[in-house]
Structure formats: structure tokens, C-alpha cells
Amino acid sequence: MKLLYVEDQPMNTRVLRLFVERLWGEVLFSVETAEDSFDLILEEDFDLVYMDINLPNMNGLEAIRYIKNTLKKNDLPIIVVSADTNEKIIADAYDSGCRAYIKKPVNIVDFKNITERVLNTDEIIGVV
């Protein structure tokens, strides 16, 4: 399983990296900006991308649209991981193409269940 996290806060990256290592024994790839993720997404065959909303320069919603529309990665599942609880932002995230929205702080049980559902189904999962 190959997973990418786009997050500019190192502590948040460390938490998710620990979750991924403990749950699945996998390495979590990470970058700090949306722009840095684009070449990596084209070069690597990721199974899933975790995307923060509040990123420097290009925000996570713009990044999701870019990945889906410009990079033509419509089949690449994206899970938003964000502290932003604004209903409009959440709705925009789903409209942009995310498959799930996990609120920070991230609960490891929810993280595991949502990740596995997204990887194993085509369903859109409500906010957790």
C-alpha cells in the first residue's frame, strides 16, 4: 500500500506516519505543499492521498481539483484531514472530489476504518 500525506505541519505528519506504520506496517510519504505533491503523484503509483485544507500557496481544495482535473487522476482516492469544521469548506471538499473528510485531531480507529473503506469501496464517506 502506498500512501501520501500533503500536510505543512510536521507534528500532524508525525501522527499520521505513526498511525500508518502501526496499523499497516507501511511507510507514509509526505510533502508540505500541494505543488510538491503533483510531480510525486505523477511519478509514483499511490493508492490514496490524505490532503490537508490549509496549506501554503495553493489550498487543499484547489489541489484536489488540480489532481482530478489537470493530472487526470480521477481514480486516485483522496481523504481530507483537516481541523476546519466550516460546513461550506466540507461541502466544497466533497464537491472537489474527496471521498472522505476526517476532522483533526485524528482518532486512530476512525482513521483505520475510513482508510480501509475508501481503499476497498467506491463509496463517499461522511464526515468523521
Architecture overview:
- The chain is an alpha/beta fold and 128 residues long.
- It has one domain: Response regulator (Rossmann fold).
- It is built from five helices and five strands.
- A five-stranded parallel sheet has the order 2-1-3-4-5, sandwiched between helices.
- Helix 3 links the parallel strand 3 and strand 4.
- Helix 3 packs parallel to helix 4.
- The longest helix has 15 residues.
- The radius of gyration is 13 Å and the shape is globular.
- The protein starts with a strand and ends in an 8-residue tail after the last helix.
- The relative contact order is 0.17.
Characteristics:
globular, 5-stranded parallel sheet, alpha/beta, 128 residues, Response regulatory domain-containing protein
Topology:
Layout: E1 3-6, H1 10-24, E2 28-31, H2 34-43, E3 48-51, H3 60-70, E4 78-82, H4 87-96, E5 100-103, H5 108-120
Parallel strand pairs: 1-2, 1-3, 3-4, 4-5
Helix pairs in contact: 3-4
- SSE-based structural type: alpha/beta
Radius of gyration: 13 Å
Ends: how far apart? 23 Å
| β-sheet strand percentage | 15-25%
Series of secondary-structure elements, N-terminal to C-terminal: EHEHEHEHEH
CATH architecture, by name, is 3-Layer(aba) Sandwich
Summarize the biggest pleated sheet.
Answer: 5 strands, parallel
CATH homology superfamily: Response regulator
Q: List unreliable stretches of 5+ residues.
A: none
CATH fold type: Rossmann fold
Number of domains: 1
Q: Helicity, in percent?
A: 40-55%
What's the shape? globular
Mean pLDDT reading: 96
Number of helices: 5
Main sheet: strand order:
2-1-3-4-5
